[in-house]
Amino acid sequence: xxxxLLLAAxxxxxxxxxxxxxxxxxxxxxAVLREGGxxxxxxxxxxxxxxxxxxxxxxxRVVVAEDWDAGMGASLRVGLEALGPDVEAAVVHLVDxxxxxxxxxxxxxxxxxxxxxxxxxxxxxxxxxxxxxxIGRDHWAxxxxxxxxxxxxxxxxxxxxxRLVECGDLAGGHDVDRR
Length: 179
Fold this sequence. Notes:
Spore Coat Polysaccharide Biosynthesis Protein SpsA, Chain A, 6 helices
């Protein structure tokens, strides 16, 4: 089983509002993961969680990162901890990537042997690593230990053999920080 893990907890200080509340980004990102091949999606909320939750379908699985202001690492840890025991891999995606579509998620999932708990892959855009990132269960403990501040899994991924999946023909992969 592959779960999507949508990180949408930040305050969006440069944006002036939590990115989970910007336009249709939250609902759109959820659809991108589902349509891209994830069997299930867990949304991690934080800043303005109550406002963001009402934008989601009533049956959507949500977890709140109470320490969201500590950075993306906190959201990633909370999300991975909340995934069920049947999940073999998580596809981590960020809410502030509006040009990344289901085709990118699908390519990352389909080219990495995603059924493996040892998988470790990430989308690249013209050779530059980005999101989404597929993390097999075998890596979760190490990722959670390394995920501090706004670095998320960056340090862990640098120290391990990560398969880059070129997606520059599908999207730009740039996060949006300003309107």
